[in-house]
Design brief:
6 strands, 3 helices, 6-stranded mixed β-sheet, SnoaL-like
Length: 122
């Protein structure tokens, strides 16, 4: 696993979290290549293109401070990262979710494909 590419993955996840909290279109756009594909569920058609991804993100944006998130990199090679995440929505009562992300990064550390699986934790 290339250390430089591995750092790209950590930076990307940190940037994703920053965008998640800010809902700033520039923060969101910085994550993606212009022709990126975002699979919000693996069994649905992807959102295609950076501008469409920004718009889709903002349509379902969480409020800043509404969640906590922890993650673990499960593996990275050939530009593909696998991340396990734990999300808690600070609602009453709290809701917890388990996440699995598959992220394909370009040489600059931007995602050109992102697929997420999420399920409510019990």
């Amino acid at each position: 696993m290339s250390g430089m590419r591995e750092r790209h993955l950590d930076r990307w996840v940190d940037g994703y979290r920053r965008a998640w909290e800010s809902n700033d279109p520039a923060d969101i756009a910085a994550l993606w290549t212009e022709d990126a594909a975002f699979y919000r569920r693996p069994d649905e058609e992807p959102v295609l293109g950076r501008d469409a991804i920004v718009n889709a993100w903002l349509e379902v944006a969480d409020a800043p401070g509404e969640t906590t998130f922890e993650y673990q990199v499960l593996g990275f090679g050939d530009g593909v990262g696998f991340v396990r995440g734990w999300t808690t929505y600070l609602t009453d009562p709290p809701a917890e979710f388990s996440n699995l992300w598959v992220i394909r990064l370009d040489r600059d550390g931007r995602a050109h494909e992102f697929t997420e699986w999420w399920m409510e934790a019990h």
